Structure formats: structure tokens, C-alpha cells
Amino acid sequence: MATTYGSFEAVIGLEVHAQLLTRTKAFCGCATSFGDPPNTHTCPVCLGLPGALPVLNREAVRMAVSAALALGCAIQESSVFARKNYFYPDLPKGFQISQFDRPLALRGALEIETEAGKKRAGITRVHMEEDAGKNLHGIGGLSIVDLNRAGTPLIEIVGEPDLSSGAEAAEYLKRLREILMFIGVNDGNLEQGSFRCDANVSVRRVGEAKLGTRTELKNINSFRFVAEAIDLEIRRQIALIEQGDRVRQQTRGYNADRKETYLLRDKENESGYRYFPEPDLPPLVVDEAFLAEVRGALPESPADKRRRFTESLKLTPYAASVLTGHPRIAAFFEEAARLHGDAVKVANFVQSEVLRDARTTGLTATFPVSPAQVAGLLRLVDEGAISGKQAKEVYTEMAGTDRAPGDIVRDKGMAVMSDASAIEAIAGEVIAANEKQVAAYRGGKTALFGFFVGQIMKRTGGSASPAVVNEVLRRLLEGGSAPGA
């Protein structure tokens, strides 16, 4: 069911540009390294100098096909590169090598979660192209053109106009980003521009079939801002129509501080780009052998992984979602669960302790401990060698080192108190000191049991064995003995 805005509804389609994680550019051997000094990764090919000829990067093709397959697209046996002609300072050739009427892949879909439930958002096409350079402003009071990025391989993922709100668009982008990251073809970095989207937004009255005039929102670098910008643009268009004005086809930006979209330029039609086949590149032919090789190398999708975590490993949907938030987090958890054997215990500890100190950057992640250390620590708790509270102390000592948890327990003289007679003596003191709570517990307020456990743990510094504490307390409290007897 579409989101409505009074008597209007929005029609939204996203065009996502995702840089492919190849070491070199789409049509030359220049490095795709990010953040290096301007114009240090250029050559006659990516500078568009006369006589320079492009050569297609095979690894870029493999990654593009991987992405298209992961999105359920049909791969075209033959696709054609084209020249997309337009002038901009960061486009050195005066055209961009892209694909137009014969793209790499067609007809995919992405399933997203909305307030109304699951929704299937169609994908029109996935095609390959090269990135443009970048204009840098304010360097020594000047503006310069950095062409390091020019020629970096991209895929453009063109979505069907199946979305109806900013929230749905943000959810679509999150799900798309995680798929590309989990298959290892894109690092999902919105700030650096390696994953970015243009949103095509139009409105129409509820019940109308004809699409309204669309505007394109560009250069928005966070999911939250994408949602904000789309919803604001929807309301801007509705206001224009209601006051008798018309929506103009434009390209607009978003000012997050002022919470408004603003005009960048009037939008060109496809005919303005004067597409024609790239004469220096033959058609791209993807044969069955290559397709089978790529399909066979595809890893488990994030959605399938979440499903397996909940159905097979018995994790909660929330835990499964957290632990598939990044491919390296998922891998860390799975290795720790494999080594320990109890996925639920491992999931709880990783979420509560490890992820607090984990750091992710692109496709990489750093963790304060190893999966083996986590598994070893939880085994000590299982064996009764230390308590859950002590496990957190051991974790703090272990973080940032390669020390085994057992060595830390030995060196610090940690040992769980499991002597039933000693715990019974402490429990007797607790019961004697809390007569009202004992009477209330025996009167039916059994939730007070946790209070007595807490008091014993407090007196033992958390070292008492929970199992022994529970057994002793139940015997004393339910045996009917008077406090202090």
C-alpha cells in the first residue's frame, strides 16, 4: 500500500551509482585509490587525450555481473557501451562511457520492510559506466579539478518507480548497500561518494494513473538526509500544484541545515545526451561459462543469513539484524559461534560487549578480541570457573591483547565461589536481614527471588556460582525456615 499525503501520493524511483572495488580503473591501468593527492592517478586514457584507446577491465565486469545476479537480474548475453555526451569540468573527454539501450542486465527486484509489511521494489536495469572526476573548492582559495576518480568503474542500478515515501527510499538504499557490501563489490561509503543515489520524485492525485512531472534530487550523502529531502520535495511539489502552479522538470540539491531542496539546473532529457555506440569498444559478451563461474562464487545474501540465524541458530530477529549489519561482524559472530557451540550465548555477548568496541570502515572492521578469545571466555563461564560478572572483567583485561582468557583468570586469582556451605551462610545472613522481603516472597511475590540473588552477588563481589546460589536460595526460602533460624 502506497503512502499518501492527503489527496496526493508520491512516485519515487532511485538511480544508485556504486563504485566497483577494482584495483584499477574501468578502461586503463590507473589505480582507484581514494584520498591521494589530486591528479596523481591519471593517464592518456582516463584524461581523454587524442589517440588513447580504452580496454575493458575484466574484474569490473565480474563484479558488475555479481551485483546484477545478487539483485535477481537477467544478464544480457551481449551489451553495448555508449558515449553519453555532456560538458562538465570534471569530464575530461566531454563524454562518459556508459551503457544505454543495451545494458548489462535487466529486470531485478529488492525486497524491503515497510510499515505495512514486506514490499517488492523492482529494478529496471543494471549497467556499467565510468565515474567522472571531482571538483575541489577552497584549496588555496582556488577551485581545481581532480581527475583521480575519472574512469573508476561504476554500476548504475536503476530502480522502478515503486517507492512512495522517503522512509521507503532510505530502506531500499540500506538493503541495496548491504547486498553490495556482502558480495564484496562496493564498500558502501556514502561520505566518500562510492555509494550515492539520485532520487526521481513526482506526485499525483490518489487514483490517477498518469505520472506527474519529476524532479531529480542529487548529491545526498546519508540515508536520513535522503528520506528528509524526498519528503520535503514531495510537499514542495504538492504545494505548487495546490496553488495552481506547475512542477518543472529540474535537478535539485538538498540543504540539510535549512531543510529545503534547491534548484541546481533544469533537467536534460535523454535526447540531450546524444547517445551513440562507443566506437572504440566492442560489444560485451557474457558467455554461460563466465556466468556460471560468477554465480557459483556468490556468497549467502544478507537476507538469507538473517533467516538462517533466526531459524537455525534460534537468534531473535533483532539480534540477527544487528549481527548482519556488516559482513565482517557477521563473519566474527559465526566463527565465535562455531568455536563455542551455543550461538545464542555468543550472540548476546558479542552484542553487549564486543560491538561496543568494534570499528568498521568500508569493508574492513577491527575488533578488540578474536572469535577464539570470545569462545574461550564463554566456555569458562559454562564450566563454572568464573561468573558472568567476572567474564566482563576478564573481557576488559583481554581487549586489545592476544592473551587467553584462562591465563587472565589464573593470573588475577579469579575463581567462582561454588562452595554450597559458604554460599548458604551468606544466604542465611541475607534472609535474616530482609524479613519483610522474605515474608512477601513466601506470600506469593516470587519476583523478589531476583532481589535475594542480587544481594548475595553483591556480598560475594559477583563471584558466587549462580547455579549454586539459586539452589541454596530456593531451599532456604521455600523450606519455610524463619529468617535467622
UniProtKB/TrEMBL annotation:
Keyword Nucleotide-binding belongs to the record: yes
GO molecular function annotations of the record: asparaginyl-tRNA synthase (glutamine-hydrolyzing) activity; ATP binding; glutaminyl-tRNA synthase (glutamine-hydrolyzing) activity; transferase activity
Keywords: ATP-binding, Ligase, Nucleotide-binding, Protein biosynthesis, Transferase
SMART domains for this protein: GatB_Yqey
GO biological process terms, semicolon-separated: glutaminyl-tRNAGln biosynthesis via transamidation; translation
PANTHER family reported in the protein's UniProt record: GLUTAMYL-TRNA GLN AMIDOTRANSFERASE SUBUNIT B MITOCHONDRIAL AND PROKARYOTIC PET112-RELATED (PTHR11659), GLUTAMYL-TRNA(GLN) AMIDOTRANSFERASE SUBUNIT B, MITOCHONDRIAL (PTHR11659:SF0)
Record function comment: Allows the formation of correctly charged Asn-tRNA(Asn) or Gln-tRNA(Gln) through the transamidation of misacylated Asp-tRNA(Asn) or Glu-tRNA(Gln) in organisms which lack either or both of asparaginyl-tRNA or glutaminyl-tRNA synthetases. The reaction takes place in the presence of glutamine and ATP through an activated phospho-Asp-tRNA(Asn) or phospho-Glu-tRNA(Gln).
Record protein name field: Aspartyl/glutamyl-tRNA(Asn/Gln) amidotransferase subunit B
Taxonomic classification: Bacteria, Pseudomonadati, Myxococcota, Polyangia, Polyangiales
Gene that encodes it: gatB
